[in-house]
Amino acid sequence: MNKYIVSIPLESSFSFTECLWFLNRNFDDCLHTIYSDRVRKPLFINGKLILTDIFQKSDQLFIEIISGDFDESDAPLIQEYISEWFDLNRDITPFYRLLSKDPRFSYMNQEFAGLRLIGIPDLFEALCWGIIGQQINLTFAYKLKRRLVEKYGTHMTFENEEYHIFPTCEALARVDPEELRAMQFSAKKAEYLIGLAGIFVKKKLSKEILTALPDFLSRQKALTSVKGIGIWTANYALMKSLKEQSCIPYGDAGLMQALFSHQVIETKKDTQPINRFFRDFAGWESYLVFYLWRSLAKK
DNA sequence: CTCCAGGGCAAAT
DNA sequence: ATTTGCCATGGA
Prior knowledge:
It is globular, with a radius of gyration of 19 Å. The chain has three domains: 4-89, DNA-3-methyladenine glycosylase AlkA, N-terminal domain (TATA-Binding Protein); 91-116 and 243-299, Endonuclease Iii, domain 2 (Orthogonal Bundle); 120-229, Orthogonal Bundle (Endonuclease III, domain 1). By secondary structure, it is of the alpha+beta class. A hairpin with a 3-residue loop joins β2 and β3. It contains 15 helices and seven strands. The protein has a five-stranded antiparallel beta sheet, covered by helices on one side. The chain has a two-stranded antiparallel sheet with strand order 6-7. The structure holds a DNA duplex.
């Protein structure tokens, strides 16, 4: 087949290297593969599977379609997906001005320069990932995700490697909870995931429905009314999928750890000063949370 | 061995 | 209204 390439112009405050580093940090994510200077990811676009290689050249991000049935009319959706994934449509220089005002965080300006809030454009995937990750350590969470994806997701093969897509809600809705139990999901998580899938199948919830709601609070409420989605998962999904800018995932163990190590709080369970602390970062709470998570990863 | 990880729910105060 | 017990597993 011919090689198709889609491109997206970049601003100077973007670092592909930092984004790749985050995607590749300490964990085994089954939904993308990092090579030295590019990331390979399968996408489900207009009902078709395509495999993409994403890399930077000067001031543009290139998406090369290396396999699958692609035509020109797919380009806008691909651009949209990648832009959301890497949060390309945002000027983050105001955030850096806020960071530089606080001696505890000003180092992030240089160390993480150009890192964008890496998203999960698909809302169903973001919510499932949130539920999977509840309470357990991330190594185990990624292991569970891999089992789920490899069993119920679709995949494509390229040069003897398999590239996986997150399962659709239709596929998960018909799973027997006992199957997930056998894969070491807790009984509750199995029930939550299958229940959530059913809600998506019935179109009672979708990214479009959520986006159409009038404000942050009503979106939060729509999510927390679902069994298995509490305030943490709701805010996590709103941050990662809808790119809401003022999400504080209350109760997050990693956030508390990072606030402790940056001397914002005295002990890891000291939840009181959080709201007051975040007031100085109004409009950039999500970004600060993301950068604090980034600070937890070991070089 | 115990404790705790990118929580949430239902039952018990 | 707020707190407590439980969940699944693995690494520290």
